[in-house]
Amino acid sequence: MLVQEIFIKPLVGSGKPGSLAQQGRAMKKRYEEAKEFIAKSNKEALESYLRSGVVKAVEVLPARNACDACKKWKGKKIALKKAIKKPPLPIKDCHNEQYGYCRCTYVPVVD
Predict the structure, then answer these.
(1) Pick from 90, 44, 94, 97: which is nearest to 71 by CA?
(2) pLDDT band at residue 2, thresholds of 50, 70 and 90?
(3) For a FRET experiment, which of 22, 38, 69, 92 has its CA 20 to 30 Å from that of 103?
(4) How far is CA 81 from the centre of its chain?
(5) What is the number of domains present in the chain?
(6) Residue (of 110, 111, 95, 93) closest to 49 by Cα position
(7) At 83, which helix (H) or strand (E)?
(8) Residue 18's pLDDT band (boundaries 50, 70, 90)?
(9) In the prediction, which pLDDT does 1 show?
(10) What's phi and psi for 13, nearest 5 deg?
(11) Of 22-36, 38-52, 64-78, which gets the smallest average pLDDT?
(12) What does the buried/exposed string (b/e) look like for 28-45 if buried means 16 or more CB atoms within 10 Å of the residue's CB?
């Protein structure tokens, strides 16, 4: 699925008239697709860091408008292999009011 299809496509649908329930289902579907996309992207980032052979740890980088639960992770470093076994992202207690899902990401730590 292309990023444009998830994030840029208007949430109200194709412009054809539809019930609020239909629009709500469409928004929920796009919300779930966005969550899946971000989770997959974070997993693939960890795997690519491992393949590089250079990255030994990752640091959690909260989104600019992160919730308090995510802000607590700011700057925390996690060994790469540990992050792959038990990924800290998405933050379980995240309650991002603007998006409704965790938007934190990893930053590679290179020695």
Answers:
(1) 94
(2) very low
(3) 22
(4) 19
(5) 1
(6) 110
(7) helix 80-85
(8) low
(9) 47
(10) 100, -150
(11) 22-36
(12) eebeeebbebbeeebeeb
DSSP conformation letters of 14-50 = SSS---HHHHHHHHHHHHHHHHHHHHHHHHHHHHHHH
Q: Residue 5, by phi and psi: left (phi above 0), alpha (psi -120 to 50) or beta?
A: alpha
Average pLDDT estimate for 36-50: 90
Residue showing tokens 């640091």: 59
Q: Would the pTM of this model clear 0.90, i.e. be above it?
A: no
Report how far residue 64's alpha carbon sits from residue 70's, in angstroms, rounded to the nearest whole number.
10
75: left (phi over 0), alpha (psi -120 to 50) or beta: left
Q: Are 98 and 86 in contact (CB under 8 A)?
A: no
Place of tokens 């990401």: 105
Q: Which domain holds residue 22?
A: 3-110
Least confident of 4-8, 30-34, 64-68, 91-95: 4-8
